[in-house]
Amino acid sequence: MLVLGIGAIGFTGGLWAAPTAEPTVQAFLLDWQQQHYQAAAALTTGNPAVVARALRGAFRQLDAAAFYLGMGPIEQHGSTALAQFQASVDLGQDGAPWNYMGRLTLRREGPGWKIVWSPSVINPHLRQGLRLAVLSSVPPRALLLDGAGQPLQTRSPVYVVGVRPARLRHPALTARALSRITGIDEGQLLGWILAAPSQRVQDLVVLRQSQYVRFMSPLQRVPGPLIIRREPRRLFTSIAPDVVGSVGTEDSPALEDQGIAYRPGTTIGLTGLQRAYQRQLAGSPTTEVVTEAGDGTHITVLQRWPGSPAQPIRTTINAGWQRAADSAVRSLPDSAAAVAVQASTGQILAVASHKAPGLPAVSPLTGHYPPGTAFSIVSTEALLTSAAGLDVHAPVRCVSANDIDGTTFRNVPPEPNLGNQPPFSTDFAHACATALSGLSRLLRDQELNSVASRFGIGGRWQLGLSAFAGSVQAAGGPATLAADAIGGGSVQMSPLAMAMIAAEVDSGVLHTPVLVGHTSATTSHASGPDLNAASLGTLRTLLRGSAAASGAATGGLPGQPVYGQQGTVLVNARAHVWAYWFVGYRGDVAFAVLSLSHTPPVSAAPGNDAVTLTGSLLARAPRR
């Protein structure tokens, strides 16, 4: 819309129309938008150097990514005119632009027009002594909570590096030096320094203690002064790191990889639930465009975009069980992992791991490991419900080795003292692999796989983070089926998957594991029939005997005996890495522990690494 007041003056020979102010307004707005500040300044009544500096400064004070101007109505009255324009400033913060209406006062000078200069040309709220600034406040990252609503993160020292912009002699040099240390884009650092209120401390990056120790000397050489403060935050450390995951701050390469612009106070989940629930845990920032007095004492908000608060996430982790698991896995000289679940709901109570020097790490949720004879829980259930049936009291020899379809199976460690004709219950209690592999001849091809699916093996879990539910392939012949029956062959399991097997034996119900949420409404029943009630009773009796034979039964409580099965298997022959398992339950808590060791089994005596780990876990666990 263009409204012009046209004046007419009579001259001999005709009429002369006053020149319109429109070309001047159009040229000024175009030069300003295209950052041709000297050209724009020449169209004003002000000192060109002062005006160019003010126009350039406003753009930098907002740390604008882009600036769009549109011409509005012009009212012209004789030698004066009033023009309106629309301004849209992209603040480069992934939010809505700052839109406002501006006004230009013009006066005619000679044959043309000039814009009457004052700071209000930039924005109607500006006057001499004021500047624009941007305030951005990121909400504190919300916490991941245990099942009782208490923080899983523990306080640890962080170092916050910031500046007071008015005290920087050379902001560009400060930004350049800090960029070289932290890896944050130099231009973005400078933009935030220039856009911040000049007299307020602008935080720029949060460093964990190890980073600060590494950067301490270079930080002292940054042109500043820098303002560095140490404070405790629940940010980097947790009692359940395997599920909580890790967090990065402003210097994290993950921000750039995901196309997230640098913003002071930003945190990003890198792994675990911190990553899965990034949006809820981080919230969104509040941004304000303000005018600021030179001494920083007066700030007026021109536009405000409210953010959203960060939302905590409540998990099913039980702090008592988690601390017990953490302490237990650290008590061994080997790599180890432990998982505990509530058998009646599938809620995960604890997930812990520890890596020993020179050994592989153990992944309690996503690891793929052969379970060895700990898998006899599944294969024995298959035998109990097979067409041939299994009498656990019938004698089954535990030989040192047996041959099945050209494949030789041996006991590791050897079992020399079970007698000539021990009942199967004794074989099971001592995890006799040759007895179990020989009995696999009673199974039809699909019977083991069918029972495995009833235990949830191979299922799909929705935990909010990756987890492996185990896998068993279809048998390719008698030798393959025998290998699978003793937890070798195609069988691969995670500690969580094994804990869920024990949970089903304990509760009699197949649940999928639950990690986020803490009420019974968060549990879900997997598809497929439950275990046979009669066979389940027999299986529980076998597990009680196995726990007693292994030595794990000493971890029982009054009214809460320990049930379970152990397994030993070579997982890496070249590196001489052995896996030791114990899978079982006590009361309403099912668990699986796994250790990786270079030490080979030397005897069948109770007390392998996994049994020791189980004893340590149960001794430290809550008593109720």
Say what the CATH topology of the largest domain is.
Answer: Beta-lactamase
| CATH superfamily caption of the largest domain | DD-peptidase/beta-lactamase superfamily
> What is the residue-mean pLDDT, rounded to a whole number?
90
Work out the strand percent. 25-35%
User: Number of DSSP helices?
Assistant: 19
Find the structural class using helix and strand composition. Answer: alpha+beta
DSSP helix fraction: 25-40%
Computed Rg? 36 Å
CATH class of the largest domain: Alpha Beta
List low-pLDDT spans: 1-16, 519-528
Strand order within the widest beta sheet? 18-17-23-22-21
How many separate structural domains?
3
Distance between the termini: 78 Å
Task: Specify the CATH architecture of the largest domain.
Answer: 3-Layer(aba) Sandwich
Total count of strands: 23
Basic shape = elongated
- Main sheet record: 5 strands, antiparallel
